[in-house]
Amino acid sequence: xxxxxxxxxxxxxxxxxxxxxxxxxxxxxxxxxxxxxxxxxxxxxxxxxxxxxxxxxxxxxxxxxxxxxxxxxxxxxxxxxxxxxxxxxxxxxxxxxxxxxxxxxxxxxxxxxxxxxxxxxxxxxxx
Amino acid sequence: xxxxxxxxxxxxxxxxxxxxxxxxxxxxxxxxxxxxxxxxxxxxxxxxxxxxxxxxxxxxxxxxxxxxxxxxxxxxxxxxxxxxxxxxxxxxxxxxxxxxxxxxxxxxxxxxxxxxxxxxxxxxxxxxxxxxxxx
Lengths: 127, 135
What we know:
The complex is a heterodimer of chains A (127) and B (135).
Chain A: E1 7-9, H1 12-22, H2 32-37, H3 47-62, H4 66-69, E2 70-76, E3 85-92, E4 103-109, E5 115-123
Antiparallel strand pairs in A: 1-3, 2-5, 3-4, 4-5
Chain B: E1 15-22, H1 25-34, E2 48-49, H2 54-60, E3 74-82, E4 86-87, E5 91-104, E6 107-117, E7 123-132
Antiparallel strand pairs in B: 1-5, 2-4, 3-7, 5-6, 6-7
């Protein structure tokens, strides 16, 4: 079974709307100059957007049970910039013990193929 | 709450919230559009909302960004445990507790857990967030 690959360009409009939904007014997300002043080459997308897309891939992979037994642990390891295209990835690890839930190593890459988010996903209570 | 939440003011064991969110169809639709979900993005009452909306609920525990959450924080890690579907049309309440704080490589880091429940008190999600705070 392969993990769904979702490729998605994260636009300035998406980031602006996410900021309104999340009530986040940090200008590094919306203004290139503010982002450069903070040491970034351009506006930084909310990491939570990449997590949301990964979660979407998990829902597609694990099915309806995901919303009541899913476990997703993520770490944001690299900034992801507005206008870039991300993609979701996953590979199954060997169970920690017999009968343990199948754990998937999951991650998101930017358009250059660099990991921006890493983590693991599992359906708790499944084997 | 109007006082800025700073690293020094956040103590381990401190309770956070509650914060309440109404999962209106419009709110869920906006979240889906903001995260680029494929069509259809319409969210009918009773349908399942994305579980990662709990990111917003847990982040809100640190305060309103425009009032008392200092700008410039960094979201470092997030753990999600889904226990029951988030339903469009419901009202959810999130509470939390600071479980750890530390400074590593000069970064002031706060770890806190959050529990989201519905109107009946049914547990929907447990999250743990690790955030680097700017102050």
